[in-house]
């Protein structure tokens, strides 16, 4: 069986969930081979977890230069690997950097690319969700191999233990790969909460939350549920919550098991980022708010009463 | 500093958008076609750089005839001129093909800096800036929330999942921007009148030296097989809070095994 390359995303020595989802998907397409792109020492702490989800091989393309420059070195290392192993497909996370790597790889290999894929069949037919979740598109790469970016939370990762061999890959970079220099990486506090695009539960606040200070009731409910916190554009534009947490057309797209929209009217701008969530719950004082049209459960009421009461009730039931 | 801003006309994301039944392309005829929202931030950033450092700003668009409206709208914000790549053979072009065409047009303009939106609201692919950088050999500083220019040296703050990265490069470069970078100006009446007289050069594939079989349906490296409307979500249960709305909410979460 041909190898299916899965580009690993990790943070602080931990494999990100989207990678486990892609390994799970890769098993249905061929032999999953994980590709770690990073500075020396990146792969070692990830190998066990990658094996747990079925990686039969781990390619470690490690170089300090990968870390020092933006995107281009990763695409170059990946292109070299694709040329040497001729995989059945290449799966990359549909994150900002993942899509950027895929774009460069497409040009290097003169290969078609599909982004935001939620399913990929063995014959290469990809399913994409377009136009804010309103349209389902079946598409295919017709030139080259299936090169796709897979949207986080598109499938449930399931373990299937394998004992991967680790193969070091030489990284030969050109000067054109080193034009953009990363001089600093700054982590902005998000506390212990899960990452927005990977979270199983997201609690978001909107204009109705009314102030930055009042977002604490959103955070309280989120923390009780082990959820990530999101915000509508109205809330981020008003300065209630940082832009990095915006869910919507111009922000993050999330697809969690449970999405709780608090004080969010449900404008198309917002729906674009969340309407493929499995279960949607809304709290809004306006009974006509469009968010109720897609909510599986809605409470018409004052969020300042309803949300703290819900938090209190969750505590009581523990 | 010579700046090129990439502008894409897209169907308004605030209204219903569709793919055509016959050829699976974006239905532009029934849509309200507007400038991709993120591109307005790119135009604004280019104008601010021009105000600070001088030079010229040129809008570059690839699209059908009706994209002219978006070009005039873009020019009304302040750019000096525009290039419209217009050719019947472009119908059906995918991202890879688009990058060939735009790279050829950019090469001809030979700018110091290309600025684009971080993504378009229709495809949301985020692939174009790096595809262009790859073809042109430019540095790519993408996903910027802040851009500073000192001589030929560029520094951006790139938004990431964890926070941000500071990335530097020398020109020529392509920078893509998020809507956190600035607040785009509204076109003034004077700007709208002036836009009507600004030069818009129309370029065909032949003008750019791109072979027709490299783009359009013939050159596409991907194909859409079919599309369908996702079943609309139906409204579920809605209760009015009469003092125990929070408890009702937790009851629901509990019934769905979330609590």
UniProtKB/TrEMBL annotation, chain A:
One of its GO terms (biological process) is fatty acid beta-oxidation using acyl-CoA dehydrogenase. InterPro entries: DHS-like_NAD/FAD-binding_dom, ETF_a/b_N, ETF_a/FixB, ETF_alpha_N, ETF_asu_C, ETF_asu_C_CS, Rossmann-like_a/b/a_fold. Keywords: Electron transport, FAD, Flavoprotein, Transport. Residues 4-186 form the Electron transfer flavoprotein alpha/beta-subunit N-terminal domain. It holds the Pfam family ETF. GO terms for molecular function: electron transfer activity; flavin adenine dinucleotide binding. FAD binds at residues 207, 232-233, 246-250, 263-270, 284. Binds 1 FAD per dimer. It comes from the Bacteria. Its cofactor is FAD. Belongs to the ETF alpha-subunit/FixB family. Heterodimer of an alpha and a beta subunit. The electron transfer flavoprotein serves as a specific electron acceptor for other dehydrogenases. It transfers the electrons to the main respiratory chain via ETF-ubiquinone oxidoreductase (ETF dehydrogenase). This is Electron transfer flavoprotein alpha-subunit FixB. It comes from Catellatospora coxensis.
From TrEMBL, chain B:
Its cofactor is FAD; AMP. The electron transfer flavoprotein serves as a specific electron acceptor for other dehydrogenases. It transfers the electrons to the main respiratory chain via ETF-ubiquinone oxidoreductase (ETF dehydrogenase). GO terms for cellular component: cytosol. Heterodimer of an alpha and a beta subunit. InterPro entries: ET-Flavoprotein_bsu_CS, ETF_a/b_N, ETF_b, ETF_beta_N, Rossmann-like_a/b/a_fold. PROSITE patterns: ETF_BETA. It comes from Catellatospora coxensis. Belongs to the ETF beta-subunit/FixA family. GO terms for molecular function: electron transfer activity. Residues 23-212 form the Electron transfer flavoprotein alpha/beta-subunit N-terminal domain. The lineage of its organism: Bacteria, Bacillati, Actinomycetota, Actinomycetes, Micromonosporales. Keywords: Electron transport, Transport. This is Electron transfer flavoprotein subunit beta.
């Amino acid at each position: 069986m041909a190898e299916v390359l899965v580009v690993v995303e990790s943070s602080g020595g931990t494999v990100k969930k989207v990678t486990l989802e892609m390994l799970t998907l890769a098993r249905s397409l061929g032999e999953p081979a994980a590709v770690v792109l990073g500075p020396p020492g990146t792969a070692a702490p990830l190998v066990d977890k990658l094996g747990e989800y079925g990686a039969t091989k781990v390619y470690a393309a490690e170089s300090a230069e990968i870390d020092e420059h933006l995107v281009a070195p990763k695409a170059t290392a990946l292109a070299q690997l694709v040329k040497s192993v001729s995989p059945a497909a290449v799966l990359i996370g549909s994150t900002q950097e993942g899509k950027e790597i895929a774009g460069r790889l497409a040009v290097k290999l003169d290969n078609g690319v599909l982004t935001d894929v939620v399913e990929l069949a063995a014959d290469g037919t990809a399913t994409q969700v377009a136009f804010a979740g309103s349209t389902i598109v079946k598409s295919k790469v017709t030139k080259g191999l299936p090169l796709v970016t897979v949207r986080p939370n598109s499938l449930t990762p399931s373990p299937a233990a394998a004992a991967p061999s680790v193969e070091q890959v030489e990284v030969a970079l050109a000067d054109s790969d080193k034009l953009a220099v990363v001089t600093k990486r700054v982590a902005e506090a998000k506390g212990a909460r899960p990452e927005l695009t990977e979270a199983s539960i997201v609690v978001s606040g909107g204009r109705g939350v009314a102030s930055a200070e009042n977002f604490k009731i959103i955070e309280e409910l989120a923390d009780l549920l082990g959820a990530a916190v999101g915000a509508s554009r109205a809330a981020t534009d008003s300065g209630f919550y940082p832009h990095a947490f915006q869910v919507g057309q111009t922000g993050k797209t999330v697809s969690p098991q449970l999405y709780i929209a608090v004080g969010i009217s449900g404008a198309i701008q917002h729906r674009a980022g969340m309407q493929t969530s499995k279960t949607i719950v809304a709290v809004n004082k306006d009974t006509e708010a469009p968010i109720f049209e897609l909510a599986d459960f809605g409470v018409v009421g004052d969020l300042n009463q309803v949300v703290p009461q819900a938090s209190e009730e969750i505590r009581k039931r523990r | 500093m010579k700046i090129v801003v990439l502008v894409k006309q897209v169907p308004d994301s605030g209204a219903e958008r569709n793919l055509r039944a016959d050829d699976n392309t974006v239905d532009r005829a029934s849509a309200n076609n507007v400038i991709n929202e993120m591109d307005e931030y790119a135009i604004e950033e280019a104008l601010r750089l021009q105000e600070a450092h001088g030079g010229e700003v040129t809008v570059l668009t690839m699209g059908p005839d009706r994209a002219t409206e978006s070009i005039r709208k873009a020019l009304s914000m302040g750019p000096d001129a525009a290039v419209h790549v217009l050719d019947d053979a472009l119908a059906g072009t995918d991202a890879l093909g688009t990058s060939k065409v735009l790279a050829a047009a950019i090469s001809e303009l030979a700018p110091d800096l290309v600025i684009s939106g971080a993504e378009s609201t229709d495809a949301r692919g985020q692939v174009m800036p790096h595809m262009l950088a790859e073809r042109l050999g430019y540095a790519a500083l993408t996903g910027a929330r802040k851009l500073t220019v000192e001589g030929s040296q560029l520094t951006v703050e790139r938004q990431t999942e964890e926070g941000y990265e500071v990335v530097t490069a020398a020109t020529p470069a392509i920078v893509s921007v998020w809507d956190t970078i600035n607040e785009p100006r509204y076109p003034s009446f004077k700007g709208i009148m002036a836009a009507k007289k600004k030069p818009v050069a129309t370029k065909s594939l032949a003008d750019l030296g791109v072979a027709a079989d490299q783009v359009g349906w013939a050159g596409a490296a991907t194909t859409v097989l079919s599309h369908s409307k996702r079943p609309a979500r139906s409204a579920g249960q809605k209760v009015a809070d009469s003092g125990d709305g929070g408890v009702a909410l937790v009851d629901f979460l509990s019934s769905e095994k979330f609590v």
